[in-house]
């Protein structure tokens, strides 16, 4: 209850912040996009990770409001970078299950794009496997509506859910994000390596884009390159950065 009051207060006092982590082409190292990651700058406890407070936001029904703030802020930021003369880049925003169930989600996304003056092609929405597996028919419909706006859809944490690969054909997703747990184990465990290899082969066969997350070293990068993974995200290239730092990085690599 105390935490709930704090979360309301956090919204009122603007204590939420977005960090941005680069997503780069695995072969060329060219920056392709950034993922917006939510943080809570708590006045006493400092920076808090979403793993600690997103479940609470969901419990007290605040996730749609905070999620909408994330979406709008990320779109405004992407537009602001363009205004500053930086090359257009894709910004990826995570959607929670609760947010996805908002009856006005599609309007909300359209409004965020319009208000920011951002072309839909620059926005990617990340959905999780568990999210899209619940309520399949309704979810597929909502996904098609989002696709009609012109945004792209990616499937986050891929491989951690039911990961029935055949499911993928039924969902209008543009790319999959291989979960960091497989990337971490890939160079040590043959089973993880085999999984990454078959996920990538399947994605290529289905014409889906691919990104591996949690890439921390050159061995992992080398392996992913050999398997033709398109993009990587991870500490090897950059940690998630606050807006001033990511803006500087964007200027440096332009
Ligand atoms: O940034 P970090 O690794 O601490 O994120 C932990 C988890 O929180 C990740 O699974 C990430 O997808 C999730 N997350 C981060 N930002 C957001 C957000 O804005 N909305 C939702 N729904 N999840 C987020
Ligand atoms: O689930 P999602 O992909 O949205 O979450 C991304 C999370 O992964 C972020 O919280 C980010 O901080 C974390 N992350 C990003 N790159 C790395 C990495 O190279 N290693 C580890 N351990 N975590 C990472
Ligand atoms: Mn994500
Ligand atoms: Na993920």
UniProtKB/TrEMBL annotation:
Annotated ranges, domain EAL: 1-254
Range covered out of full length: 360 to 613 of 762
Organism: Noviherbaspirillum denitrificans
Protein name as it appears in the record: EAL domain-containing protein
């Amino acid at each position: 209850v105390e935490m709930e009051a704090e979360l309301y207060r956090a919204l009122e006092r603007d204590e939420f912040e977005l960090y941005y982590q680069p997503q780069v082409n695995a072969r060329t190292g060219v920056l392709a996009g950034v993922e917006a990651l939510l943080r809570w700058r708590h006045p006493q406890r400092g920076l808090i990770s979403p793993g600690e407070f997103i479940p609470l936001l969901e419990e007290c029904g605040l996730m749609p409001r905070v999620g909408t703030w994330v979406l709008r802020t990320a779109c405004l930021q992407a537009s602001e970078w363009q205004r500053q003369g930086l090359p257009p880049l894709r910004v990826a925003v995570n959607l929670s299950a609760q947010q996805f169930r908002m009856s006005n989600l599609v309007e909300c996304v359209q409004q965020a794009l319009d208000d920011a003056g951002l072309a839909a092609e620059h926005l990617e929405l990340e959905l999780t496997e568990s999210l899209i597996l619940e309520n399949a028919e309704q979810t597929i419909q909502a996904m098609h509506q989002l696709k009609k706006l012109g945004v792209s859809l990616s499937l986050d944490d891929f491989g951690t859910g039911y990961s029935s690969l055949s499911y993928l054909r039924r969902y209008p997703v543009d790319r999959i994000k291989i979960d960091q747990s497989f990337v971490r184990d890939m160079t040590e465990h043959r089973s993880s390596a085999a999984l990454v290899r078959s996920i990538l082969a399947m994605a290529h066969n289905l014409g889906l884009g691919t990104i591996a997350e949690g890439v921390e070293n050159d061995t992992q990068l080398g392996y992913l390159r050999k398997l033709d993974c398109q993009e990587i995200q991870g500490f090897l290239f950059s940690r998630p950065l606050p807006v001033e730092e990511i803006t500087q990085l964007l200027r440096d690599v332009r």
